[in-house]
Amino acid sequence: MQYNDCFQLGHITRTHGTRGEVVIFLDVDFPEDYEELDSVFVEIKGQLVPYFIKNINVQKGSKAIVKFEDINSIEAATPLINCALFLPEENLDDLDGSQFYYHEIIGFKVVDEKLGALGTVTTVYTMSTQDLIAMSYNGNEVLIPVNDDIVLRVDREQKILHVALPEGLLEVYTEETTTPEDGQEDEQE
């Protein structure tokens, strides 16, 4: 299995107990969709290695306790901590219109409905309060909030993300910050 045929499901955060179970973070919108997972690919030293799941218990907060086959001790599970987990893209449901998976828009051209072509999507940051699409624009990183009023639609064939950026958003990232010159500050006595 190759990386470009997969999406990152999450990563292993720590061991759980002494019988080889691990806690994983599921970096997905609906963790409960993965309660019947049979196997995953674990990234080990730059390689995707298949691991079969004996038991998975999805918890609150995008976490799950997983028991892999043939991992029966804390010593065997410890090297897996911080390893990324991947699944084949074919496991994903097809999306259309304005819906998209974050991993699929990396490299897409960003086109604003008024300003035209702007830049390229470099990554997507998932935050607890707001997910942000990072775009390379004239040598600057511009963060675009993931919001239905801003991100209008995706054209998969043309690899274009259509947006309607709020007025002034680009200027926030492109204006030079000025600082008072030495000796120009007001001194208080």
TrEMBL record:
Gene3D superfamilies: PRC-barrel domain (2.30.30.240), RimM (2.40.30.60)
Keywords: Chaperone, Cytoplasm, Ribosome biogenesis, rRNA processing
Compartments (UniProt record): Cytoplasm
Organism field: Runella rosea
Gene: rimM
GO biological process: ribosomal small subunit biogenesis; rRNA processing
Protein name: Ribosome maturation factor RimM
One term of GO molecular function: ribosome binding
Residue span(s) of domain Ribosome maturation factor RimM PRC barrel: 103-169
GO cellular component entries: cytoplasm; ribosome
Domain description: The PRC barrel domain binds ribosomal protein uS19.
